[in-house]
Specification:
14 strands, Glucose Permease (Domain IIA), single chain, 2 domains, 16% helix
Length: 199
């Protein structure tokens, strides 16, 4: 399945390939390769939702701070770029901020364009900061303020490489992941709730 927000790119590539095919074999081959690449970038596979607090994004853990309840994930170009709700909740804030487009692994990524989501949950307020990268220029939101979300429900599409920072209430959770670990959005358990209320 192709993610909402990426279907136009894939469709345009397919149309361009079909138009060029009868006339320019080498160009059509290149366009076909580009279309396949876009299908991989914008893929949106089904997920079996995991236990506990789940990863909000596919990618690699770039930083963890247990005292702050902070988990930062770097999404490379090869990763799925659909983000997901880490826990059941209600969207209390959805804020878009314009900014730069530095590489997602840069120390100055905090200056990049971003969408910040705040969720009211049974374990307290959580915050999810989705940032663009050097190639990613747009975040396509799927949710709005006041919307109720189930764990693992889709939040947005970040086009191409990017970064997602998740802030959990540190007194309510025990973070389980470590720097360098690979995550799968909606499936990987990144934290357990201390009193065990969350299944």
């Amino acid at each position: 399945m192709i993610a909402k927000g990426g279907r136009g790119f894939v469709g345009a590539g397919a149309v361009a390939t079909a138009v060029a095919l009868p006339f320019l074999e080498y160009i059509s081959l290149g366009l076909a390769s580009l279309t396949v690449f876009l299908m991989l970038v914008f893929r949106d596979p089904r997920r079996i939702i995991g236990k506990g607090v789940v990863a909000a994004a596919d990618g690699t853990v770039r930083e963890v701070d247990h005292e702050l309840g902070y988990v930062s994930t770097y999404l490379a170009l090869r990763n799925v770029h659909v983000t997901r709700a880490p826990i059941d909740g209600v969207v209390t804030k959805s804020e878009h901020e314009r900014g730069r487009h530095r590489p997602a692994f840069s120390r100055r990524t905090h200056e990049n364009e971003r969408v910040t989501l705040s969720l009211r949950t049974d374990i307290g307020e959580i915050s999810l900061v989705q940032m663009t990268g050097a190639i990613a220029r747009r975040i396509v939101p799927y949710v709005k303020e006041g919307q109720s979300l189930g764990k693992g429900e889709k939040l947005s599409l970040i086009r191409f490489g990017s970064r997602v920072d998740l802030y959990l209430p540190p007194s309510s959770v025990e973070i389980l992941v470590r720097k360098g670990q690979k995550l799968v959005a909606g499936e990987t358990c990144i934290a357990e709730v201390r009193d065990g209320r969350l299944g």
